[in-house]
Amino acid sequence: MIVYPCHKHILPGGRQKLTFSSVNDMDRMLTMIERSPVFIASMIEPDDEAEPSNLPETGTVVTIKESQCDQKNGLILLLEGCYKVEIVELERDVDGWLLADVRRQANWDSLPLSGDNDILASKLEDLFESVPEIGELYNDTHFNDLTWVTQRWIEILPLNVLHKRMLITQPNPELAQRFLLKLLKAENWI
């Protein structure tokens, strides 16, 4: 499966817009889509090169929900996360594509909100309303699902890539939920 290194995390149920404005980037992305409209999005540090040694062992299989192409903005893709994968083997082919053998990882189970974690959903809903470019990505929201809420926070917050990787590789969202509550309290968001 093709791996696309990007500077944003996309988790199951998450959505991200990627914009390609240079002709070379647009051509390369359109070629990749023709080859495989389903691919792996794998987050790298902003300053890292897209080399196999810089990619994490996990990624998310994504599909393209919408695409737009115009002269003003270039190519805009709306990606949606399907499921997490472990990248077992990674190599670069003769055309320069990163190809991976993967093993599917279990998504976190859906969990109801309760007690302390209700505030995470409330603040995320406030964020979606105050930053429409994020809120508009989602036709269907799940503010009553702790897993969905936690994954959206992980995607949105400007956390260190290593912290994000550590949180998303946990077997459930509990550690991430505790981390997010402490972080939001420390930043006086709650």
3D architecture notes:
By secondary structure, the protein is α+β, with helices and mostly antiparallel strands. The chain folds into two domains: 2-104, Archaeosine Trna-guanine Transglycosylase, Chain: A, domain 4, CATH 2.30.130.40; 115-186, LON domain-like fold (Orthogonal Bundle). Helices cover 33% and strands 29% of the residues. It contains six helices and six strands; from the N terminus they run ββαββββααααα. The protein has helices at residues 23-35, 118-130, 132-135, 146-156, 161-168, 174-186; strands at 2-6, 15-20, 38-43, 58-70, 74-92, 98-104. The chain has a five-stranded mixed beta barrel with strand order 1-3-4-5-6. The longest helix has 13 residues, at 23-35. The radius of gyration is 17 Å and the shape is globular. The N and C termini lie far apart (41 Å). The mean pLDDT is 89.
The overall pLDDT, averaged over residues, is 89
- Tell me the strand percentage band: 25-35%
By secondary-structure content and strand pairing, the structural class works out as: alpha+beta
Helicity level: 25-40%
The biggest sheet, with number of strands, parallel, antiparallel or mixed sense and barrel status, is: 5 strands, mixed, barrel
Q: What count of domains describes the coordinates?
A: 2
Name the shape in a single word: globular
Output the CATH topology of the largest domain. Archaeosine Trna-guanine Transglycosylase, Chain: A, domain 4
Helical stretch count?
A: 6
Name of the CATH first level of the largest domain: Mainly Beta
Per DSSP E runs of 2 or more residues, the count of β-strands stands at 6
Unreliable residue stretches? none
Task: Order the strands across the largest sheet as they lie in space.
Answer: 1-3-4-5-6
If you compute it from the alpha carbons, what radius of gyration comes out, rounded to the nearest whole angstrom? 17 Å
CATH architecture of the largest domain: Roll
Helix-strand pattern: EEHEEEEHHHHH
- Rounded to the nearest angstrom, the distance between the terminal CA atoms is 41 Å
CATH superfamily of the largest domain: LON domain-like
